[in-house]
Amino acid sequence: MPYAVNTMPRPRSLTPDQLAAAALAVIDREGLSGLSMRAVAVELGISTMALYRYVADRGELEALVVELVLGAVDSTPPPLTAGPWRARVTLLVDRMRDTVGAHPAVLPLTMSHRHRSPGVLRWGETVLGVLGEAGFGAEERIIALRTLLAYVIGAIQQEHLGALSGAGTAAIAELPADEFPYMTEAALGARSLTPDREFHGGLAMLLAGLGR
């Protein structure tokens, strides 16, 4: 009696980048709350159990996504011809904003996984190098780096979750002017403020406050 031939396809191998890209696609489409092992398995066209061959849980998926996004941030040191230290730091912060801002739903994950990400560690190393060249001391560099990270993460959240062009600004503009004179004035003026002007205006204020 002849042996039966196994016609089942062999499971395909998936790379970490493929897993991360599938998880990122889910997040971009459904938000962070939509990320699950099952959703990523569906995105990849495999069973949930098969996905467990590659990652142990959602936390590992999150770490892969963070590295995929933050790993794309250009951490090449800006040349001296880019200008004074403020101009070079601005260039580095812009790179972070452009890359992470393309996937704003990932932002909450950056806080819990950033210390594991070679991408963000390289970016931080470059920023610290520029600050060191500008004469900042060791403690000053730590404070400056964390302040810059807090600003760029917060600014991206503001831009995508609470944009000045959104309903919140319109509601504030309609408040009683005698009770909220400054808030209503700010809301009316904010209508002409673009996201780029808001971001770079705030960054310029922050860098000016760092001194040197």
From TrEMBL:
Residues 36-55 bind DNA. Signal peptide: none annotated. Keywords: DNA-binding, Repressor, Transcription, Transcription regulation. The lineage of its organism: Bacteria, Bacillati, Actinomycetota, Actinomycetes, Kitasatosporales. PANTHER family: HTH-TYPE TRANSCRIPTIONAL REGULATOR RUTR (PTHR30055), TRANSCRIPTIONAL REGULATORY PROTEIN (PTHR30055:SF151). The keyword Transcription regulation applies. Residues 13-73 form the HTH tetR-type domain. It comes from Streptomyces spororaveus. Gene3D superfamilies: Homeodomain-like, Tetracycline Repressor, domain 2. This is TetR family transcriptional regulator.
